[in-house]
Design brief:
By secondary structure, the protein is mainly beta. The chain has one domain (2-128): Immunoglobulin-like (Sandwich), CATH 2.60.40. It has no helices and twelve strands. It has strands at residues 2-9, 11-16, 22-27, 32-34, 41-43, 46-52, 60-68, 77-86, 92-98, 101-103, 108-115, 121-128. The chain is flat. It starts with a strand and ends in a 5-residue tail after the last strand.
């Protein structure tokens, strides 16, 4: 299995299309966010990952996301989510992980994600200062 793409989103809606095809409507793809208030602040970004299972694979997997302070796999861990899943061989599935992250400063963190202990895929997320009127 492999992660085809991973990014932060506002919302998504799966739907059926003609002939049994599936569509996923995704809105608000982003890699940064203006803080809702001054730091310290808690934000809960949603990481969306699209995963493909080859026809010759079992269809059982584990999706792991580790939010870290940087791109280095040894950087400090901020949060972790591990969730088993199944998908029909030859098909796609998606995983949605909500990070619960405390920020004491405006900065970038990195969501490291993978399936079944494969190589990590880094997805950066930057918290920006709040918008002032």
């Amino acid at each position: 299995m492999q992660v085809l793409s991973a990014f932060f989103i506002d919302t998504f809606a799966p739907r059926s299309a003609e002939g049994g095809a599936t569509r996923i409507d995704i809105t608000g793809i982003h890699f940064s966010l203006a803080a809702p208030a001054a730091v310290p602040v808690k934000v809960e970004p949603h990481l969306f990952a699209l995963i493909h299972c080859r026809p010759d694979e079992s269809g059982s997997g584990v999706f792991e996301v580790v939010f870290r302070e940087g791109f280095d796999e040894e950087s400090t861990e901020l949060a972790r989510n591990v969730s088993p899943f199944t998908v029909e061989p030859g098909k796609l599935t998606y995983r949605l992980v909500r990070g619960e992250l405390e920020f004491s400063e405006y900065r970038q963190i990195v969501a490291h994600c993978r399936v079944n202990r494969d190589a990590w895929i880094p997805v950066p997320f930057t918290l920006l200062p709040p918008v002032t009127a």
